[in-house]
Amino acid sequence: MSQTFKTIAKFQYTAEAQIIKGRLESEGIAVFLSDNITIDTDPLVSNAIGGVKLKVLSTDAMQAQHILESINKYSIDDEGKAIHCPNCNSTEVAMFSTIKDLKSFFAFIFGFISCTLPFYSKDKYRCANCNTEFDIK
Fold it and tell me: What's the CA gap between 57 and 22, in Å, rounded?
């Protein structure tokens, strides 16, 4: 019986794929990562080759998709509760990094000129429904 793998998700970096791989393997699903070594060697080619492909056996694809859908892709606070948008009260809030303030802008310029990373960036939250950007205190 031939066992073929089916791609069920693509990730920009290997670390993201490894987390999901661990979750699927804990559920008893055989997982294979494709192009992860290439991207670990040169992360800049990730978009060119389509990222890290997470593959499962075709027979397990449906179960793996249900597990992926059950993983919450939105932000939670330290107690594990969903973060709510202050504008529309939606729980579809994701964290992103920005360099809009003066400190992060100068850190970005310094890092760019001196070819050093990581540079300072400010983390904010954005609501997927109303695009409101906000901080959490």
Answer: 15
